[in-house]
């Protein structure tokens, strides 16, 4: 008989089955020598100039007496390496004028871990007997949130308003007429830029959500994994905001270092202390490597320079290529693509597609082309809605060849499906 905890975490959770499916498709293609169009994962690109930069940072660590020994030989504080947190606080103070110190920053082993902490801190059963949910004002939202609740039904999400444009693009916006912040809500959360859609909530939307969270005395969690000031995979004007009521989550992953597992949370001290306590209980301390590799670049501002000069233009070029392929190959179908404002995904919408996005995913997989079926991206929105099964997420982080052959196969399969084949 399994424990309730084991039952929650061992079955086929959405993200687990998806990650293993992606992994086995990759392994299969490698074994058979077939080439795989991997448009499915959340891995950032290998950008050689960025990799050279961090290789040199690694070399500098090795060349500094005692530094390597310090990094591998010591546990960090439960809140994470103090030098890196101080450097981050100074950077944010300089860039944005935020009045923060290292005590406002807690590191975690990847920002995914931070979401596990935060959603269970503010959602789930409360000591007064109530049960609170995390409000996701706009679904589709990041698939990684779906299963992090220790308790089920942790999320409450709302459908977006959809604005279509003449050039075949469209954009989601928060439907403030529908949105309700009731007593049942423990925190509000948005990813900005949004994974999977590439949407960037407007400054007006963010200001309004922030005001709502203040009005209800609940935190506003902003997932800035792709945003400014680093890695800056964002093309619209979007200044990050922070105050004592905002919990800003960042990461070194999309800078090109998902392997070092470094998440960064900027919050008021009461919250960073709680997160530190959770780090201590779950893993004693966050790892030191990401903090060490990014320390110097954070101190001297190079982290902004590589984001602005190397990372942002790299993904902007990829987006241009992918959008031109979309127009060339799918322009004569009802297909639409969400405005590509940030992150490194395109979110294709196939209105009235006669097959479910899962079936499309299977047909594409049979042709060695891996995407993510859209219906996975609706935590907190269980009700049926045709749109949920009409979209797919396409990563643009792969090589140009992968994009070209992958989008060509998507176009062939989508046209076949529209012709009821
Ligand atoms: C929107 C968003 N938030 C958070 C994460 C988690 O990233 P990590 O745990 O690598 O910091 C991801 C990863 O894909 C993401 O896309």
Q: Helix share of residues? A: 40-55%
- Tell the overall outline: globular
Average pLDDT? 94
What share of residues are in beta strands?
A: 15-25%
Named once each, the bound ligands are: pyridoxal-5'-phosphate
Count of alpha/pi helices: 12
Query: Structural class, please?
Result: alpha/beta
Largest sheet: 8 strands, mixed
Order of helices and strands: HHEHHHEHEEEEEEHEEEHHHEEHEEEH
State the CATH superfamily name of the largest domain: Type I PLP-dependent aspartate aminotransferase-like (Major domain)
Radius of gyration: 21 Å
How many separate domains make up the residues? 2
Structural features, described:
With 421 residues, the chain is an alpha/beta fold. It has two domains: 160 residues, Aspartate Aminotransferase, domain 1, CATH 3.90.1150.10; 226 residues, Type I PLP-dependent aspartate aminotransferase-like (Major domain) (Aspartate Aminotransferase, domain 2), CATH 3.40.640.10. Helices cover 41% and strands 15% of the residues. Strand 3 and strand 4 form a beta hairpin. It is globular and about 65 Å long. The relative contact order is 0.16. The model has no long low-confidence stretch (mean pLDDT 94). Bound molecules: pyridoxal-5'-phosphate.
List the helices and strands and how they pair.
Blueprint: H1 4-9, H2 14-32, E1 37-38, H3 48-63, H4 67-73, H5 82-96, E2 105-108, H6 111-122, E3 124-125, E4 131-136, E5 155-157, E6 161-164, E7 169-173, E8 185-191, H7 203-216, E9 220-223, E10 246-251, E11 263-266, H8 269-283, H9 289-300, H10 302-330, E12 336-338, E13 345-349, H11 357-366, E14 369-370, E15 372-373, E16 391-395, H12 400-418
Parallel strand pairs: 1-14, 4-5, 4-8, 7-12, 8-9, 9-10
Antiparallel strand pairs: 2-11, 3-4, 6-7, 10-11, 12-13, 13-16, 15-16
Helix pairs in contact: 3-9, 5-9, 10-12
């Amino acid at each position: 008989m399994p424990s309730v905890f084991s039952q929650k975490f061992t079955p086929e959770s959405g993200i687990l089955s998806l990650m293993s499916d992606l992994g086995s498709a990759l392994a299969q293609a490698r074994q058979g020598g077939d080439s795989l169009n991997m448009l499915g994962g959340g891995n950032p690109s290998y950008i050689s100039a960025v990799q050279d930069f961090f290789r040199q940072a690694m070399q500098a660590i090795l060349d500094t007496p005692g530094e390597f020994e310090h990094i591998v030989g010591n546990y960090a504080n439960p809140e994470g390496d103090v030098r890196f947190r101080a450097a981050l606080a100074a950077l944010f103070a300089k860039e944005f004028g935020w009045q923060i110190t290292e005590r406002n920053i807690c590191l975690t082993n990847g920002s995914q871990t931070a979401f596990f902490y935060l959603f269970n801190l503010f959602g789930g059963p409360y000591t007064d007997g109530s049960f609170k949910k995390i409000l996701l004002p706009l679904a589709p939202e990041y698939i990684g949130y779906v299963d992090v609740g220790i308790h089920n039904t942790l999320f409450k999400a709302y459908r977006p308003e959809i604005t279509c444009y003449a050039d075949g693009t469209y954009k989601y916006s928060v439907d403030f007429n529908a949105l309700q912040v009731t007593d049942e809500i423990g925190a509000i959360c948005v990813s900005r830029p949004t994974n999977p859609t590439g949407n960037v909530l407007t400054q007006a939307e963010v200001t309004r959500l922030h005001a709502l969270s203040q009005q209800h005395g609940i935190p506003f969690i902003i997932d800035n994994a792709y945003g400014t000031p680093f890695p800056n995979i964002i093309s619209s004007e979007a200044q990050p905001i922070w105050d004592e009521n905002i919990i800003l989550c960042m990461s070194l992953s999309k800078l090109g270092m998902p392997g070092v597992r470094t998440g960064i949370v900027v919050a008021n001290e009461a919250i960073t202390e709680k997160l530190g306590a959770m780090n201590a209980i779950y893993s004693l301390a966050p790892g030191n490597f990401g903090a060490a590799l990014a320390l110097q670049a954070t101190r001297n501002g190079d982290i902004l320079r590589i984001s602005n000069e190397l990372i942002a233009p790299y993904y902007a070029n990829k987006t241009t290529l992918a959008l031109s392929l979309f127009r060339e190959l799918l322009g004569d179908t009802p297909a639409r693509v969400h405005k590509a404002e940030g992150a490194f995904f395109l979110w294709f919408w196939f209105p009235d597609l006669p097959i479910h996005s899962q079936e499309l995913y299977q047909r594409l997989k049979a042709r060695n082309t891996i995407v993510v079926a859209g219906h996975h991206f609706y935590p907190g929105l269980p009700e049926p809605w045709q749109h949920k099964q009409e979209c797919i997420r396409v990563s643009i982080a792969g090589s140009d060849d992968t994009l070209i052959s992958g989008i060509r196969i998507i176009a062939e399969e989508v046209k076949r499906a529209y012709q009821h084949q």
